[in-house]
């Protein structure tokens, strides 16, 4: 932006106008009497008197109001669900009903790695939460994160699609047997990929993949005989009835 002025104090006046606008936005927020302000952007606006002091932070500090800046949008959405707030894009559009009042306590903690975390706790009816993972290395943390996400996806899928299927590769093996029977009348190897998952399960638990898979899908095998709930036990590497064993997975 180019600023053209005929007076020597034109630049100083422009900064004063910017300062007045920042103050007006801060006072607009303070009218709602918040204890904590969270924004996805920065909290800036240098004062004309002290260039090193962020004006907005100074105004909030004098009003005894904490401010968290540069929060990710995904985290901001979760915070809004937890405290009952509404995300507002413009300060001029904020209303008292948009303020979250369901958080009982906000506290700042310093971890062993000198990282600071803000905790919003004692929420009355939170619709979102955060799971804090702790581990000795990033590799282990990433593995825990992956396993936790997979474990949480199972109940989520059951809630959205309340259908269950036997685990242990039962579904894949049943499809493979059905396609193998259909393959007698048509050309193709469509059933081959479905045998990969049961074979991998057997190999991971140290079983004999050839023997176990043959027992399930061969002529006169369990699935061919109609025992479609039989699958692979990951502990013993043998075929068991998943219905009696109690191993189910989401059908979605």
How are the elements arranged and paired?
Layout: H1 10-30, E1 36-38, H2 55-62, E2 66-68, H3 73-83, E3 105-110, E4 116-121, H4 138-160, E5 164-166, H5 170-182, H6 196-204, H7 209-217, E6 230-232, E7 239-241, H8 242-245, E8 248-250
Parallel strand pairs: 1-2
Antiparallel strand pairs: 3-4, 5-8, 6-7
Helix pairs in contact: 1-2, 6-7
3D architecture notes:
- Belongs to the TCP-1 chaperonin family.
- It holds the Pfam family Cpn60_TCP1.
- It comes from Coprinopsis marcescibilis.
- This is GroEL apical domain-like protein.
- Keywords: ATP-binding, Chaperone, Nucleotide-binding.
- It is a single chain.
- By secondary structure, this protein is α+β, with helices and mostly antiparallel strands.
- The protein folds into 2 domains: 10-147, GroEL (3-Layer(bba) Sandwich), CATH 3.50.7.10; 164-250, GROEL, domain 1, CATH 1.10.560.10.
- Helix content is 39%, strand content 12%.
- The chain contains 8 helices and 8 strands, in the order αβαβαββαβαααββαβ.
- The chain has helices spanning 10-30, 55-62, 73-83, 138-160, 170-182, 196-204, 209-217, 242-245; strands at residues 36-38, 66-68, 105-110, 116-121, 164-166, 230-232, 239-241, 248-250.
- The strands form 4 sheets. A two-stranded parallel ribbon has the order 1-2.
- Helix 1 packs parallel to helix 2 (55-62) and helix 6 (196-204) packs across helix 7 (209-217).
- It is elongated and about 90 Å long.
- It starts with 9 loop residues before the first helix and ends with a strand.
- 15% of the residues are buried.
- The mean pLDDT is 79.
């Amino acid at each position: 932006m180019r600023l053209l002025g005929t007076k020597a104090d034109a630049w100083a006046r422009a900064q004063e106008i910017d300062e007045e606008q920042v103050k007006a936005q801060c006072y607009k927020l303070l009218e709602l009497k918040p204890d904590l302000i969270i924004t996805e952007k920065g909290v800036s606006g240098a004062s004309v008197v002290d260039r090193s002091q962020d004006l907005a932070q100074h105004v909030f500090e004098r009003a005894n109001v904490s401010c968290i800046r540069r929060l990710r949008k995904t985290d901001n959405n979760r915070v809004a669900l937890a405290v009952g707030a509404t995300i507002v894009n413009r300060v001029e559009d904020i209303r008292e009903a948009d303020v979250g009042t369901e958080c009982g306590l906000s506290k700042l903690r310093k971890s062993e790695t000198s990282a600071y975390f803000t905790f919003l706790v004692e929420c009355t009816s939170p619709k979102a939460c955060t799971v804090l993972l702790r581990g000795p290395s990033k590799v282990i943390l990433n593995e825990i994160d992956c396993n936790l996400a997979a474990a949480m996806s199972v109940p989520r899928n059951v809630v959205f699609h309340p259908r269950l299927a036997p685990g242990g590769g039962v579904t894949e093996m049943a499809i493979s047997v059905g396609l193998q029977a259909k393959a007698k009348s048509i050309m193709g190897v469509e059933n081959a990929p479905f045998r990969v998952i049961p074979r991998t399960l057997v190999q991971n638990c140290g079983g004999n993949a050839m023997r176990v898979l043959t027992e399930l899908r061969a002529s006169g095998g369990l699935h061919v005989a109609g025992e479609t709930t039989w699958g692979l036990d990951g502990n013993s590497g043998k075929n068991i009835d998943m219905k009696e064993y109690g191993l189910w997975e989401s059908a979605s």
